[in-house]
Write a structure and sequence with these properties.
Layout (H helix, E strand, L loop, with lengths): L8 H17 L10 H7 L4 H5 L3 H5 L18 E5 L5 H10 L4 E6 L2 H13 L5 E5 L12 E7 L8 H11 E10 L9 H4 L2 H5 L1
Helix pairs in contact: 1-6
Bound molecules: S-adenosylmethionine.
The site of S-adenosylmethionine has 22 residues, from helix 1 and helix 5.
Length: 201
């Protein structure tokens, strides 16, 4: 199915990047969505997990749920975090899979990627890396990961079928997805879908 929305995709991506650049660089500013430690508490991440993360990963956390509530990640697994932001979930995942496992975070916003890399270094984690890329064109080979996690990202992607095609392309047979996202229960009006300010704010 092709995307039935008249939307300037490049403009939408650049507005989303601007918004999440702010979440990375001025997290204290306050946004129309919850962020940081209060959000992590609301989403029932154990305090001990959050305490183990660098301040920079916690303050720019902007998820909408808790992908780990679907179960812990297996030791030794290769995990992809789609839209990894400042690395909050990637860093938790890297600890769960251990040194025999590997975590790859993919995001399109440079400031988030830079902050995530600083956070991983601060924790001395060598089994996690962050790559620039789009959800719609994941920079990973076919059948290369055991688990895909994501938190609050697919709702920002207009072509959700393409996003899930990519997720299933990179998953190994028998792999699994643990995705937290926004679900609508009523059809969103066409003019709202075409209003970029409603995607970002
Ligand atoms: C709501 S934030 C969530 C970040 C992170 N998962 C967390 O829980 O803190 C959304 C993230 O998705 C990224 N993003 C949005 N659309 C994207 C796309 N099409 N491709 C890659 N990254 C995208 C943004 O840059 C941002 O870092």
């Amino acid at each position: 199915m092709t995307l039935q929305v008249k939307l300037d995709i490049e403009k939408l991506r650049s507005e989303i990047q601007l918004k999440y650049k702010e979440v990375a660089t001025t997290p204290e500013k306050g946004f129309h969505f919850h962020t940081g430690r209060p959000l992590a508490r609301m989403l029932e991440y154990p305090d001990a997990w959050v305490d183990a993360l660098p301040k920079g990963a916690v303050e720019s956390f902007a998820g909408v749920g808790n992908p780990f509530s679907l179960g812990p990640l297996p030791m030794g697994a290769t995990v992809l975090d789609v839209g990894s932001g400042a690395g909050f979930d990637s860093l938790i995942a890297a600890q769960q899979v251990g040194s025999a496992g590997r975590v790859i975070g993919v995001d399109m916003t440079d400031e988030m990627l830079a902050k995530a890399a600083v956070n991983a270094r601060a924790m001395g984690l060598t089994n996690v890396e962050f790559k620039k890329g789009l959800v719609e064109e994941l920079p990973l080979p076919d059948a290369s990961v055991d688990v895909v996690i994501s938190n609050g990202v697919i709702n920002l992607v207009p072509d959700k079928e393409q996003a899930y095609r990519e997720v299933y392309r990179v998953l190994r047979p028998g792999g699994r997805i643990q995705i937290a996202d926004v679900v609508v229960q009523q059809e969103v009006p066409q003019d709202s879908k075409e209003d970029i300010s409603l995607w970002t704010g």
